[in-house]
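Q: I'm writing up a methods section and want to include an example of the input and output format. Could you take the sequence below and give the corresponding predicted structure tokens, formatted cleanly so I can copy it straight into the document?
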Amino acid sequence: MTGAAMNDTLTKAAVLILLGPPGAGKGTQARMLEETFGLVQLSTGDLLRAAVAAGTEAGLAAKSVMEAGGLVSDEIVLAILKDRMAEPDTTRGVILDGFPRTPGQAEALDALLAEQGLAISAAISMEVDDAAMVARVSGRYTCAQCGEGYHDSFKQPAVAGCCDKCGGTAFKRRADDNAETVGARLTAYHASTAPLIAYYETRGVLRTVDGMGAIDAIAAELGAIVGQVTA
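A: Here is the clean output for your methods example:
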């Protein structure tokens, strides 16, 4: 694909940012949006690992930094993101997960997108109730054999101690899925994300959805927003 053709393709792409604290269900909703709208979820962590594995110029730079125990710079992350968005499967658009995290990163992302004839279509914040989120996340556990998810209050196996999916009898919990840790993560999330939410609100692209509803209800809200900005 020539540079001109690639740019023409990219100008038709939607760029969505999905905001929400750990445990809000961003991953689940992003996968549903991918299937419904033909979008591609781009996770910062996954992008870095893929670029390192592929041995791209930006990937090699990231590998050097990580091996030295440093933090990968915004410039490297943006270079990797630019490379990934040039791939043909992003023609319909992308959902960014994990980047940007600060207004400074948001400004740098805006500049990168502008070079490609793009702009943020919507920054969607999944609004949550902190107390309910603590209860939701701290009660999670999974089947140790197949990974099927359960919850102390909302979803227990039909037969106590036996996984519905595979029949396994061993279960496990993440060490950090406890009330104290979850509460601290929520506090940190709100502190770091508040300026970013304000940034996108002033630019007229912020949207909010109720992140505490049923999965299908949240998906419907998100779908309505994405349908509007991708029409």
